[in-house]
Amino acid sequence: MSKKIEYPLASFKMSLELAKAVSDLGGSCNMEIAAEKMGRKLGGGFQAIISAAGKFGLIIRKQRELKCSDDYNQYKLSYNKEEEIKHLQKFFLRISLFKVIYEKYKKSILPVKILDKILIKEMGVEEKAASRVSKYFIDGAKFVGILKPDDNFNEIEKIEEIGNNKGIAAELQGNLQNNSRETNNFVVSIVGPGMNHKIEIKEKEDIDILNAILKKVIKRFDEDI
Q1: What does the alpha-carbon distance between residue 90 and residue 162 come to, in Å, rounded to a whole number?
Q2: Distance in angstroms (rounded) separating the CA atoms of residues 149 and 137
C-alpha cells in the first residue's frame, strides 16, 4: 500500500483503562497523574497507550494534559449493555486499519494464523509491529463483540448510525456533574496555573495521587522562591 494506514501500538483494553483513569480523576488531568493512577511509569509504553487512546477517540491530548472525549462521556451514559457495546464497537472501528480488516473478512472467517503476514503484505503495517497489531485486532474485536470465538464476525450496525442521541447524552452528563456534589466519598479540587484536578477519594491509593499533585504544587512554590 502506498498510502500509510493508521494503527495503534497499544491494545484497545488498555486504552479504555486510560480513559477510565482520566474520568476517575475528574475528566481531565496531566500525564503524570494518569500514569500514577494506572500504576505505570511515564515512559514509551505509556506514551503508546496515550497515542492509541487518542486514535480510538477515547481521550484528547493537549501537550501534557489529557481529557476524556465527548464520545467517551456518552459511552459512560449508556442505558444498558447493548448500547455500551455499540459505543465500544464505534471506538474500535475508528482505527482505519481495523475497519479495513473488518470489511474485508466480515462475510468469511478471519485468517488468524496468517493475519500478521497479511498486515505486512497487503496493508502496509511495518514488519516489526505486525504481530502485535494483529493481536490487538483479534483481542479487541472479541472484547467489543465483533469477532466470535470461532473467528467468524458478528453482523453489526453501520458505525455511522451509532451514537445519534448526543443531545440526550450531553444533558445527562450535565445532570451527573451537577449531582456529583452529593457523594459519600471525599472530593478534593485543585485548580491553578496549568492545573485543574478533581480527585474523588474512594480508596487509600487515591490519597497517593493527591499527594503527588500536592508535591507538584509545593515544587512550584519552591521554584518561585
Answers
A1: 7
A2: 14
Q: Which residue has the cell 487515591?
A: 206
Q: CA-to-CA distance for 131 and 96, rounded, in angstroms?
A: 17
pLDDT at residue 196 tops 80: no
Residue 27 · residue 20 · CB < 8 Å = no
Say if residue 125's pLDDT is above 80.
Answer: yes
Prediction pTM value: 0.70
Is residue 183 packed enough to be buried (19+ CB in 10 Å), middle (13-18) or exposed (0-12)?
exposed
* CA–CA distance, 78 with 173 (Å, rounded to integer): 11
Read off the pLDDT of each residue in 168-181 and give the average, rounded to a whole number: 41
Q: What is the pLDDT of residue 192?
A: 64
Residue 75, Cβ density class (10 Å: 0-12 exposed, 13-18 middle, ≥19 buried): buried
